[in-house]
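call fold target=DUF6364 family protein
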Amino acid sequence: MKKPLNITVDENLIKAIKQYAENKETSISALVEDYFERLIKTKKELESNVSLLEFVKNLPEAKMKYPEDFDWKEEYFKKKGK
């Protein structure tokens, strides 16, 4: 069950985060909830002495999907050459 949460944030930050959320086609609530989930998950994993491999395996799935044949090395050097 979701419940409302009131927070106080700098006015300029609110404007910036509204624009960011709009660009990402999401809501501020979703951004905050996602951040809190990551914060708690990361802290729990660090406290439980999880191996780096396990930590990486448990990271959230990327929001962007890449094709199976995506050439990461080629993209890296394209951007590095700019």
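return ok
The longest helix spans residues 28-47. The chain is about 60% helix and 0% strand.
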